[in-house]
Design a protein that fits this description.
The complex is a heterodimer of chains A (297) and B (460).
Chain A (H helix, E strand, L loop, with lengths): L1 E10 L2 E7 L1 H6 L5 E5 L7 E9 L4 E7 L3 H7 L6 E2 L1 E6 L10 H5 L3 E6 L3 H13 L5 E6 L8 H7 L3 E5 L6 E2 L2 H10 L6 E5 L2 H13 L4 E4 L15 E4 L2 E4 H4 L2 E3 L5 H8 L5 H11 L17
Parallel strand pairs in A: 8-9, 8-12, 9-10, 10-11, 12-13
Antiparallel strand pairs in A: 1-2, 1-6, 2-5, 3-4, 3-7, 4-5, 13-16, 14-15
Chain B lengths: L10 E2 L2 H4 L7 E3 L2 H8 L9 H4 L7 H10 L2 H9 L5 H7 L6 H4 L11 H14 L14 E5 L3 H13 L2 E5 L8 H4 L8 H14 L3 E3 L10 H6 L5 E4 L5 E2 L12 E3 H9 L17 E5 L3 H12 L3 E5 L11 H10 L2 E3 L2 E8 L5 E14 L5 E5 L5 E3 L3 E4 L3 E2 L2 H4 L27 E3 L2 H4 L4 H19 L1
Parallel strand pairs in B: 3-4, 3-6, 4-5, 6-18, 8-16, 9-10, 9-16, 10-11
Antiparallel strand pairs in B: 1-2, 7-17, 12-13, 13-14, 13-15
Helix pairs in contact in B: 2-4, 2-8, 4-5, 4-8, 5-8, 6-8, 9-18, 13-14, 14-15
Chain lengths: 297, 460
């Protein structure tokens, strides 16, 4: 069992938990993820690592409730425990293994959307600890849904917040802010974008035009997370890759987002649910990421 | 009067009934049946069956005890050489191993060694008999990576020799392919697998789940920082293969690994578990091995019409004869000499059919099997909504890529000598699918056993 030492709701439906997981805390790097399970009947849920404390053996995760399994996670309190917590999985962000002096010369831009702010944070923090200040754009639907602003401010070179409805910071989508920054004379050698698939797709479209190489972090459907099931396969540059072992970060300009988005819907969207309902009748039993009552819809 | 040339028949669940449930297919012998079958063994002096067993169980020895009705003694004889008798009695290909060598089989049917082993193991479990443990401790630590058949066997043997053994398992549950791969109806998880693992634990073996070696901790760290004197790698061959045909990334195309893991490990077939599984109406399983049969029979039980699509003929099916027989009995349709060329999708990227081509057998290839060649112009479309690819697996590079000095061959299999399981790195041994590529449970157990001996020699 993996004890939850801190649990709080960051904003509506987005939760932060600090979990005691010594082996993960000791070896994890920015860009990697964990898989958690609430109880014996639970689904295996992949979550990107948000922060870690090697000395204390703590790992921080941030998640949004999207269905039955994550809702069950959200009900856990400080002092409770996860049944399973495995990791770190996937490859660390590329820059972790790069030469620091070369990195220092790079102008880096991070683009975070919604709950994607959480996995961006350890990357920016890591760079900050190496003396590298990166620019960060954080986008949220509205002011209330913004997370980790203070934390990000502490580690980012410049932080640009934008809200879709203009209720806080700049107004509009993150792509608008990217364009504005470049128009204002900013130059970037590399961009890292993490957020909803649709956001990453449009960020990549924009950065391709602006000729900024862009890394994205994919979070497709997974079961084991160690390369065994192949559920997480994505097409990158015409080749089939497994996000769990080859990723989760990929060259965003090479990712087939349309396919990836469709694959994400297998157990998820209205269409998928209708499809499954038609196929399964009343046997559909949750875990689809949408039926909050455990599937008895 | 019994016919001594024939096996005592084993009771099975009726094919029509079992096609709709996940209960075990084979019901096994009771004591009377087992004793009657055991009496067919002629107790050869130079027992060929032992030579056919990858873990060299004293087969005539245990069968004699069954014949006498001393089942506990029979179990202890098996336990000297096997940590997983209830598993082996169910999933070993006995027809090509012990039973294939049985003298009785020359004129008539061989002794039903597998079913007798299963009976002895089941009886011991039901009567609370545990395997005998080590008499004295060696004071040395061995790490075993992977809790599948190779790892459990190696760990069990080392613990019996007195080593302090810890198994590291990447998944949340111990058992490897026994829990994620082989379905409930062939190998019950709670009743059989869990109990066999408890027996291994009762020998003093510790199991740490949720540890991915190469990610959570490396082999070098285990040896340098955590004080392990030797390491056995039994990490299996987990990476699924795909065909590389158009449409393979469509929704509704799964690897057999994914499909079986959802059903077996995650219990998606049960209504009280969260993990979903797609219940297709018409499912094509591509491939002809044991895993293909398992996937097909699982899909059938989830309510689908199921087709096995295999490019060679029935004779070349790599699956065990018993599995093919069971599959046919249950109503699986075999589309042989057929090969998929494209998976068709609807506008939302869901599978809506599979284009196939007919094959015929040509000249034998390097494997000695006749090579299937396409029949020109024979393309046709199968109406399916789900495709399960069961084309074999290859070893996971997670460990080999993070362990310095551990060499692999061109198929990414870890190089290890057969006799001792010794790898190219000192103190590190390996066996099972991680070394051979996908093979059987019992061969992995044989390799685990050989490596336990190798490790014991190395540490003595």
């Amino acid at each position: 069992m993996y004890k939850i030492v801190q649990a709080k709701e960051l904003t509506t439906n987005i939760y932060l938990m600090v979990v005691e997981a010594k082996r993960v805390a000791k070896s994890c790097q920015p860009g990697q993820f964990v898989i958690v399970r609430t109880d014996e009947e639970g689904e295996r849920i992949p979550l990107t690592i948000c922060d870690y404390d090697r000395d204390k053996g703590f790992v921080t995760i941030v998640f949004q409730t999207v269905g039955a399994a994550t809702q069950k996670m959200a009900w856990l309190k400080e002092g409770d425990a996860f049944h399973d917590f495995v990791g770190p999985l996937g490859c660390p962000s590329e820059f972790v293994t790069q030469d620091i002096d070369t990195l220092k010369k790079k102008r880096m831009l991070f683009v975070a959307g919604g709950v994607g702010t959480a996995p961006v944070y350890p990357q920016v923090k890591w760079l900050h600890e190496q003396g590298i200040e990166a620019d960060v754009i954080v986008g949220a639907k509205t002011k209330d849904l913004l997370i980790l602003e203070k934390e990000m401010e502490e580690v980012a070179g410049n932080l640009y917040v934008t809200t879709d409805d203009g209720s806080y910071g700049r107004s509009g989508m993150v792509t608008q802010t990217i364009k504005d920054l470049v128009d204002e004379g900013k130059n970037y050698d590399t961009c890292v974008a993490i957020g909803p698939m649709i956001m990453m797709k449009f960020v990549c479209k924009m950065t391709k035009e602006l000729k900024i190489p862009t890394i994205v972090s994919l979070n497709p459907i997974m079961v084991d997370g160690t390369g065994m099931c192949g559920a997480c396969r994505v097409t990158v540059g015409g080749e089939v890759k497994f996000a769990c072992v080859d990723g989760p970060e990929f060259d965003g300009h090479q990712v087939d987002f349309d396919q990836a988005m469709k694959r994400q819907q297998i157990y998820k969207t209205e269409e998928g649910r209708a499809f499954l309902r038609a196929k399964e009748g009343n046997t559909h039993h949750g875990g689809c990421g949408n039926c909050t009552d455990g599937g008895k819809e | 009067m019994m016919d001594v040339l024939k096996k005592v028949p084993v009771r099975e669940q009726d094919a029509k009934v079992r096609a709709a449930n996940f209960e075990e297919v084979c019901l096994g012998y009771n004591k009377e049946e087992a004793m009657e079958e055991a009496a067919r063994c002629i107790n050869c002096k130079n027992a060929q069956c032992i030579k056919g067993c990858p873990v060299s169980i004293n087969i005539p020895g245990f069968i004699e005890k069954v014949k006498d009705g001393d089942i506990e003694a029979a179990y202890q004889i098996i336990s000297e050489d096997s940590s997983l008798p209830a598993v082996c009695g169910r999933v070993c290909p006995q027809e090509s191993q012990c039973e294939g060598k049985c003298i009785r089989g020359i004129k008539g049917e061989p002794v039903s060694i597998g079913k007798l082993e299963r009976f002895a193991a089941d009886w011991a479990r039901e009567n609370g008999i545990k395997p005998a443990g080590a008499k004295e401790k060696k004071g040395k630590k061995v790490a075993v990576i992977g809790s599948g058949p190779a790892g459990l066997t190696c760990a069990g043997d080392l613990a019996r020799m007195g080593y302090d053994v810890t198994i590291f398992e990447a998944l949340h549950e111990a058992g490897g392919v026994l829990v994620y791969g082989i379905p409930e109806f062939r190998l019950p998880k709670q009743a059989v697998v869990e109990k066999e693992i408890e027996n291994v634990k009762s020998l003093g073996v510790k199991i740490e789940t949720n540890v991915v070696i190469g990610k959570s901790v490396t082999i070098d760290e285990l040896m340098k920082e955590e004080g392990f004197d030797a390491v056995f790698i039994g990490s299996g061959a987990g990476l699924p293969k795909f065909m590389g045909i158009p449409g393979e990334q469509a929704n509704g195309v799964f690897s057999a690994n994914e499909y079986l893991t959802r059903s077996n490990l995650m219990k998606a077939f049960r209504t009280d578990c969260e993990t979903p599984i797609m219940r297709g109406k018409k499912v094509a399983v591509v491939g002809g091995g044991n895993v293909a049969m398992d996937a097909a029979r699982t899909a059938l039980r989830l309510g689908a019409e199921v087709h096995i699509v295999y490019r060679r003929s029935e004779e070349e099916l790599p699956a065990r004869v018993e599995e093919v027989h069971h599959a046919k009995e249950e109503g699986i349709i075999f589309d042989l000499l057929t090969n998929p060329v494209e998976i068709l999708t609807d506008e939302n990227a869901w599978v809506c059919g599979m284009k196939c081509i007919r094959m015929e057998l040509g000249e034998p290839d390097a494997s000695g099997r006749r090579r299937p060649v396409e029949v020109p112009g024979s393309e046709f479309t199968m109406d399916v909504d789900t495709v399960i690819m069961s084309l074999g697996t290859s070893p996971n590079p997670l460990i080999s890529s993070t362990t310095e000095g551990l060499e692999v061959n061109k198929w990414k299999c870890i190089i290890a000598d057969e006799e001792h399981g010794r790898t190219t790195k000192e103190g590190v041994y390996a066996g099972g699918d991680a070394v051979t590529g996908a093979a059987t449970v019992i061969l992995a157990m044989g390799a685990g056993k050989a490596a336990a001996k190798g490790i014991d020699e190395y540490l003595s």
